[in-house]
Structure formats: C-alpha cells, structure tokens
Amino acid sequence: MKIIKKMTHFLFGNLAPDTNIVQDIALLGMRLILAYVFYHTAMEKWSDMDATINWFGNKEWGLGMPFPALNAYMAATTELVGAILLVIGLGSRTISLPLIFVMIIALVTVHMGNGWLAIGDSMHDPEIADRLSKAKDILKAHGDYAWLTAKGGFVILQNGVEFVIMYMVMLLAIVGTGPGRFSLDRLLHRVKTGAPK
Questions:
Q1: Which residues contact 163 (CB under 8 A, 6 or more apart)?
Q2: Short-list 12, 15, 75, 67, CA closest to 41
Q3: 63 and 107 Cβ atoms separated by less than 8 Å
Q4: What is the pLDDT of residues 24-57, one digit of tens each?
Q5: pTM confidence score
Q6: Is the pLDDT of residue 10 over 90?
Q7: Do the beta carbons of residue 38 and residue 54 sit within 8 Å?
Q8: Are 17 and 174 in contact (CB under 8 A)?
Q9: Please, are residues 178 and 93 in contact by the beta-carbon 8 Å criterion?
C-alpha cells in the first residue's frame, strides 16, 4: 500500500492541488463536456449492442477487432461509467486513464486514416468542395433543400483525429491536475484531511 501511495504522490503530487476559481471552472467545464461526449457515445453503443458488436468485429465494413463482444461491452461500460464519474468528479483521475485508452483505440481503429479534420474543409480541399457541391445539386433537384438545411448546412464528415486528440488532451489535464474544487474528489479529500474549504 505504501508503494501505491508513493507512486501516486510521485505522479500526481498533492491529490487536491491548489487551484484558483478560474481553473476550477475550466476543470468543471472540461469534465462536463467530456461527460456529455462519453455519455452519448456509450448510449449509442448500448442502444443496439448487437450492431455495435458486429461493427467492432466485422473486417469488411467494421473495425475487425478481436473479441468484439468483450471490446464493445468494455468500451460502452467505460464510457458510461466515465461520464457519470466525470459529472460528479469522483475518481476523476482514475477513470480518465481507461477513457484515454478507449480514445487511443478509437484513434487507431477509426480515425487515424482520415487525416486531422473531423469535418472536411471545402474551402481548402477542391475534392471535398466538388463532392459537397454535387450533393447540394442533387438535394436541390430531388428534395426540399430549404427544409433539409433549415437547421444547418451540409458537410462532408471526414472523421479525422481532431476531436479524439482534443478529448485525450482534456483527459490528460484532469489526470495531471485533478478535477478541481467542484468535485466529490475534492470534498472527500477535505473530509479525510480536515482541510479548510
């Protein structure tokens, strides 16, 4: 047990680092944004676990991962539990590590071959601009284009690493600094140590 405490202190220093209110608000904001993202990706998996397992395992149109059922359940569970723990700020550093691992797997299996951008840049990529233009022409000719674009314009989903890298950096910040004062982790630390509010 002493070895774990020494390693934790070496890696993280004080478990409740001194932060100012701006840092605490930023850490809370990061936790809530990440929780929102992971909750939705988890629920997408859980809403049709059979399809998720098929996508994880299929080599032709899916990820081609070994043990697809195990991996699908582990990813969905990690994301859902992670979302809950990030919202309340409990075990934030600990849960951030498996969430980073899930992001690394997503980076390698889904996003890495698609470049940096999540949404294709039609201003700087003529091929994307051409495809987007042709898609709009088809929609204008054969659909209700005004209705289809009333909530926003059409884009080409490039599905690059942009968001995955941002989520990993945000999680790494939580690992390094902790969840901030607006968290159960901080409250439990105060109760345990008798530290002032």
A1: 118
A2: 75
A3: no
A4: 999 999 999 999 999 999 999 999 999 999 999 9
A5: 0.83
A6: no
A7: no
A8: no
A9: yes
